[in-house]
Amino acid sequence: MEHTSSAYPDSLRITTLQGHILEQQTAHPQASGTFSWILSALSISAKIIADRVRRARLENVLGSVGTENVQGEVQQKLDVIANEVLLRTLAGREGVAMVASEENETPIILRNSSPGVTRYCVLFDPLDGSSNLDVCGAVGTIFSILAHRGDSGRPEDSLLQPGSRQVAAGYVLYGSSTVFVLTTGNGVDMFVLDPGIGAFMRVERALKIPVGNKTYSVNEGNRQSFPADVQRYLDWAQSQGYSSRYTGAMVADLHRILLKGGVFLYPSTAKAPEGKLRLMYEANPLAMIIEQAGGKAVDGAGRRILDIPPSAVHQRTPLVIGAADQVDRVLAIGAG
Ligand code: AHM
Ligand code: MG
Prior knowledge:
alpha+beta; Fructose-1,6-Bisphosphatase, Chain A, domain 1; D-Maltodextrin-Binding Protein, domain 2; 2 domains; 5-stranded mixed β-sheet; 8 helices; 15 strands; 30% helix; binds 2,5-anhydro-1,6-di-O-phosphono-D-mannitol; binds magnesium ion
């Protein structure tokens, strides 16, 4: 019996990330394909980084390089390798005007804008949670894509757009399997790398975060210097029998929350009064994904992350992010 593609159940179709991107492009006939090429560069980067992460111990590329990045944090050898991989794959894509990385002090301008050509800015944290590598823990790549605004003003001006303007965002989790999670503003889809054939296979569409999960994710070692509202929330959560889960890699913690529910907090601390996490490389892309899956993301004052007007590319923010019910709890108990 012959099946037309529309008659064949979605659950039985085999769709790769590449096929998914083309499918989305077909649904938007005005799309030039430029954007799809950028996503394909990110998918190739993810496969290369996954391979380097898996072989890191054997190739002796664990540990630090002995330098610090622009934020004064120790760079791991694989931070530098992953950064290079992303820069080198994205540099070849005509549609990329500018890239900005957590590991580079200034954004890199690849192409100027030309009339009638749509170009994009790609921002990324190449290897989030990289100190987990030495102990074989999970790490991730986070990316955010903004439309390039042209060449007027300072180059950074094109990057300094609020998260609500992101045209796509995603992350790659290098865990017990390699997972690619993507949103282009139309729900959240999930792909798993099949190492046998080297392709990301679509395994979930339109993910929605479950509610009712009594789990919080926070570095409680910093508790004494958390703001009073966060301490009040933790007292309340513990009195209600909440569980605690914290991996030290935000991508892994957020992936658990996307699939199971709960809330992640990185408040301001004595060591990091503005919060530790970066607005443009971490908070914005993860907030877009979480909101697209029905969740919420706010800063220490309860402001929606995606509405924050950025003033610097490496700006930091306190962050509360996760299932809508659990973020609301943090806000309600904290305010009380
Ligand atoms: P990084 O981008 O330098 O790796 O820092 C971000 C990471 C997050 O993945 C993680 O949630 C957090 O830092 C852990 O920080 P801490 O050890 O202070 O709890
Ligand atoms: Mg990071």
